[in-house]
């Protein structure tokens, strides 16, 4: 079983029943046969990496020679974003271009049926700000909002702040020009695709590309926080590491209590035969 996930953007007005206008693309042919099905809504800036934000019913669609209008109803908001990294492939990326739609598989959907998740009806409000000042649009997985104050809530922010919003694998810290957003993903040490809660030592804040590499065993942690690289790690990423991190050691948080759990790292490493 698969489900469609539609990308929603900052300017979109999301309510219990709403419409999305999008440019024409190959993805329209895929969506056309799924009317009446339950679909998901989320945000993605990197192919295959999603922050799932809501669920609803795909009600209808219509198009002209320039755009398509998708209609949805019974939309319910997740009480917290759910991070999902899909396998992806070049063919699906081509079909879904300009990357406004994707399909999620059974293993992805299992994360959304967790018993601690709740669904609420969204108010009609821009995606950038939710009721009570909570960031509903900003992904707790892909993009983090640098909120003012010494402490920010949420597992993602505790992990990101432990690493000072810097990827410990590459050493790169990338942020928007206004300083409000940082690029990176929070991935579990042992289960990088499923970790949504815990202590900072249970996860790392890494760039999207190295998050994918770690999840698939192309880069893993050694017994002394050294970085072990698989022979299939792309040459471009290998070169980046050699330039940005010539010691091939993980850049550890300042607080030793936040250092990654080496036992968990070992279990992750052994899954890939290291």
Describe the protein's architecture and organization.
The protein folds into 2 domains: 3-127, ph1033 like fold (Roll); 143-271, no CATH class. The protein is 20% helix and 31% strand. The protein has 7 helices and 15 strands. Strands 1, 3, 4, 5, 6, 7 and 8 form a 7-stranded mixed beta sheet that branches. The chain has a two-stranded antiparallel ribbon with strand order 2-9. It has a two-stranded antiparallel ribbon with strand order 10-11. Residues 122-153 have low confidence and may be disordered.
Give a quick precis of the structure:
Helix content is 20%, strand content 31%. It has 274 residues and is α+β, with helices and mostly antiparallel strands. It has 2 domains: 3-127, ph1033 like fold; 143-271, no CATH class.
Question: Which key terms come to mind for this protein?
Answer:
seven-stranded mixed sheet, 7 helices, two-stranded antiparallel sheet, ph1033 like fold, 2 domains, alpha+beta, 274 residues
Could you give the topology of this structure?
Layout: E1 3-7, E2 13-14, E3 18-23, H1 27-32, E4 38-46, E5 49-63, E6 67-85, H2 90-96, E7 101-104, H3 106-112, E8 119-120, E9 125-126, E10 143-145, H4 155-162, E11 181-183, E12 185-188, E13 203-206, H5 208-215, E14 219-221, E15 227-229, H6 235-244, H7 262-271
Parallel strand pairs: 1-4
Antiparallel strand pairs: 1-7, 2-9, 3-6, 4-5, 5-6, 6-8, 10-11, 12-13, 14-15
